[in-house]
Specification:
Blueprint: H1 2-20, H2 23-33, E1 41-48, E2 53-58, H3 70-81, E3 87-94, E4 97-98, E5 103-105, E6 108-111, H4 120-132, E7 137-138, E8 142-145, E9 180-186, E10 195-199, E11 206-209, E12 212-213, E13 222-225, E14 233-237, E15 239-240, E16 244-249, H5 253-267, E17 271-272, E18 275-277, E19 285-293, H6 294-303, H7 307-320, H8 329-344, H9 367-378, H10 381-390, E20 414-420, E21 422-431, E22 437-447, H11 450-465
């Protein structure tokens, strides 16, 4: 009994000691003891939004590459400048006249609105609208209007060797299936070629299937395209021993869109004689407009950390504030910097933001700057509500679906993740044990193993929940 009593007393003393520690002391203990920080750097900021006070800061003024938590800066600015009900429009219009025998004596235009959610079913709606107009032959040309943005299809500082991965599509005002195709490989009879299905269906690409079914000696299954030649031949090789789908980007997005639209029209027995690029005249007759609200774009940018969605928000900031055609990244950057200076109260000369997704090697921010965006959003219900709803939830969905599945952080942390080579970051909101809402920013730098940084961040989050 005495032994049990002593153990109980020791337990009570331990609990009282932990309770007596401040949040800052507990976080300091982690920072000073974690082996990860012997070879890497971290910047941390924690702010109590309920009480309106900073509760912890560690190297929060230093500059770091943010990776995808930069999407928070893009999203907050977009919600403030564009609004939750902003729309992305893709239009079809024509010049000339439609004759009684269903011939369009003029040009058919498809006008790009940089809609990152434009999918195969949307393309079908465009083709159906042309069919319903009575057009069966286009005597002129099918013209793609991509004058909304400049012709630079990657952001500054993007890594060239990230292609042909789907997370780095070729940017364009006309995007179909996020500029990518889904290649599904289905094994067949042993030793025979597997079945290959590519969606969206189009004549823009070709397929070279060299794989074999259930033959391990063929090596690992590989699905790629001849990207070094800017080609669109999809190559499948190796051993196909299970059904799998790989997403590849296409070179280039506007060509993929235009040629697939022509293909869809021809499938509907609408004759297309020629395709071209040009600007839709103001006097063109509107035929159909497909509108996309901002909310699904915001949700994909944050929940899935989708780079294209974030870049669409970024470029539309420039488009919304410019009367010029061919808007470039500097136009969007100007809006980001003006907002940073006038609304956030920080000097943009002290930071570098050149894209909307955080992919660029040229981006540099501080945890303190990111914290100000989180505080700004929280103080404005019309921004915080859609932002908070779009953030990944720990252990539940998005890029946090497989993290913090236990403990008090589970279903509590709503935050944006960030990962590029050497960088891992996490920023968002969490409720403390006393019900206070906290905002936090953690940016790990010079990290060889992203898993170690994620475990460090999860540990910090669990402490914040207590």
């Amino acid at each position: 009994m005495k032994r049990i009593g002593l153990l109980f007393i020791s337990f009570i003393i331990c609990c009282c000691t932990l309770a007596a520690q401040t949040l800052a002391e507990r976080l300091d203990a982690v920072v000073s003891s974690d082996k990860l920080l012997t070879t890497s750097e971290v910047g941390i900021s924690v702010f109590n939004l309920t009480q309106g006070k900073q509760v912890y800061a560690y190297q929060d003024k230093k500059l770091y590459r943010p990776a995808s938590i930069e999407k928070l800066i893009t999203s907050v600015t977009a919600l403030a400048e564009l609004g939750e009900y902003y729309v992305f429009n893709t239009r079809v219009a024509y010049t000339g006249t439609i004759t009684q025998d269903s011939v369009l004596q003029g040009d058919l235009y498809v006008v790009g609105g940089f809609d990152p959610e434009f999918m195969d079913e949307d393309m079908n709606k465009l083709a159906e609208a042309v069919h319903n107009s009575g057009i069966r032959s286009i005597q002129g040309r099918l013209v793609a209007d991509v004058s909304l943005t400049d012709s630079i299809y990657w952001g500054p500082g993007w890594s060239w060797d990230d292609t042909p991965e789907s997370f780095q599509p070729y940017l364009s005002p006309l995007m179909l299936n996020r500029g990518c195709v889904n290649v599904t490989v289905i094994p067949g009879t042993k030793g025979k070629r597997p079945q290959v299905e590519v969606v969206p269906e189009s004549d823009y690409y070709t397929v070279c299937n060299l794989a074999k079914s259930y033959l391990p000696q063929e090596g690992k299954l590989k699905v790629t395209r001849n990207w070094l030649d800017n080609g669109n031949t999809i190559y499948i090789s190796g051993n196909a021993n299970y059904r799998c789908t790989k997403k590849l980007n296409m070179y280039a997005s506007q060509d993929f869109f235009l040629h697939t639209f022509a293909y869809k029209l021809n499938k509907k027995r609408i004759s297309v004689q020629a395709v071209a690029y040009g600007m839709c005249p103001n006097e063109a007759t509107g035929l159909y407009t497909l509108s996309r609200p901002l909310t699904p774009v915001l949700k994909r940018a944050l929940k899935k950390s989708d780079n294209l969605s974030a870049e669409a928000l970024f470029y539309h900031l420039g488009i919304h504030h410019s009367d010029e055609k061919y808007v470039g990244y500097k136009d969007a950057q100007d809006v980001i910097y003006d907002f940073m200076k006038n609304e956030i109260g920080y000097n943009p000369d002290d930071y570098s933001i050149v894209d909307g997704s955080g992919v660029s090697l040229y981006n540099y921010i501080s945890p303190a700057l990111m914290m100000e965006y989180l505080k700004y959003a929280y103080s404005r219900a019309e921004i915080f509500r859609p932002l908070y709803e779009a953030l990944p939830i720990a252990g539940v969905d998005g890029t946090l679906g497989n993290r913090m599945k236990k403990g008090r952080a589970y279903r509590n942390v709503h935050a944006k993740t960030g990962t590029v080579t050497g960088v891992s970051s996490l920023a968002g909101y969490v409720k403390a044990g006393n019900g206070d809402m906290l905002a936090f920013v953690i940016i790990n730098q010079n990290v060889l193993k992203g898993k170690d940084a994620r475990l460090f961040q999860d540990k910090i989050c669990e402490i914040l929940t207590h």
